[in-house]
Amino acid sequence: MMLKDIDAVIFDLDGTLIDSMWMWKSIDIEYLARFGKEFPEDLQRCIEGMSFSETAVYFKERFNLPDSLEQIKSDWNRMAWDKYLNEVPLKEGVMDFLKYLKELNLPLGIATSNSRELAELVINKHNISHYFTSIRTSCEVERGKPYPDIYLRVAKDLGVSPERCLVFEDVIQGVIAGKRANMKVCAVYDEFSKDDEEEKKKLADYYIRSMKELLP
Fold this sequence. Notes:
216 residues; alpha/beta; 6-stranded parallel β-sheet; 9 helices; 43% helix; globular
């Protein structure tokens, strides 16, 4: 039923296709410690959904960092590189679900808030790039999630009307972005955002704990 009247499927990346959200808190703690800054407990909630570039601006302004925005982003890419390469797996059921969608001849896209470098690294590492017609980052649009810009861009790439798209998202700001794009949204369980489970269920059209649930 979820795929009824759907002409394209668009996925968030981190926390949706790959199990990676766990690592960013440790990176943020380590990064801020370089500048003698404490990690504020509200930080990850404040930056949820922001593009990689928006997050760099937020860090620079909130923590009064001396480094340029490009240096901040470069440092984050370097700090996360080995983890994405060696420690970040696909989430349960993802590979089989991608194969199933391809068998249905549905065009697929990725709409991620991550950097282009890290997105391409992990997608190529898991050999799934050929499943996707469009892979976009929020740095390529005017505003990150919860604004709908990234999802509308990917739908345009796929040549599909937004209302005929199904989005998979793991965080509240992403779910809101998909709904604001006038798309159907399936919220996905992730350990990182488990405290938001009930809110995601209310906001989304569907909710799953694993993509294994969607296989025939």
